[in-house]
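During the reporting period the student researcher (J.K.) took over the structure-prediction task from the postdoctoral fellow and processed the backlog of single-chain submissions. One of the processed entries is reproduced below for the supervisory committee.
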Amino acid sequence: MHINRDAIVAIVLLIGCGLFINESFAIKEATFGQMSSALWPRIILAPLTLLSLIFFVKSLFQERSEGEQKGGFVGWLKYYKNPIFVFGFFAIFVATLPFFGMLVGGVLFVFLTLSYFGGWDSRSLFLHGLIACATVGFMWSVFTFALGVILPQGELFYGVIKGI
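J.K. obtained the following structure tokens:
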């Protein structure tokens, strides 16, 4: 057994889960609800903590790798190119959320991410658009109509509806 980079990340995740679980006891109870306000955060934190613990135990039994990714900053950028692009797309999604809203912004985010990984030919673009509209539209419908969650509407739709 040895402590490697994965073990350190797992320890940080476990500490974060512990802090979040501790903070879930400070969530104020809503007077209009039937279940505890802390129920959903704890439902999410339970499997997250379990998965972090499994990750930690697994990382302790990993064999040592011969070497880390070499090449300095440029090598690091090449190695982590895909996650950097996805985080960039997500940052753009969050930044444009007040304008586009959840529905249009979510569809654009999923479409761009799928197109980045799946290619830009016409057949792929059609399929990516179909997948983005169906999945985001379904999730938006569930949250809006079934769960009654008020999602960001965005200035784009607000201006169109206001003009009608």
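The committee noted the following: The CA atoms of residues 87 and 138 lie 23 Å apart.
J.K. will present the remaining backlog at the next meeting.
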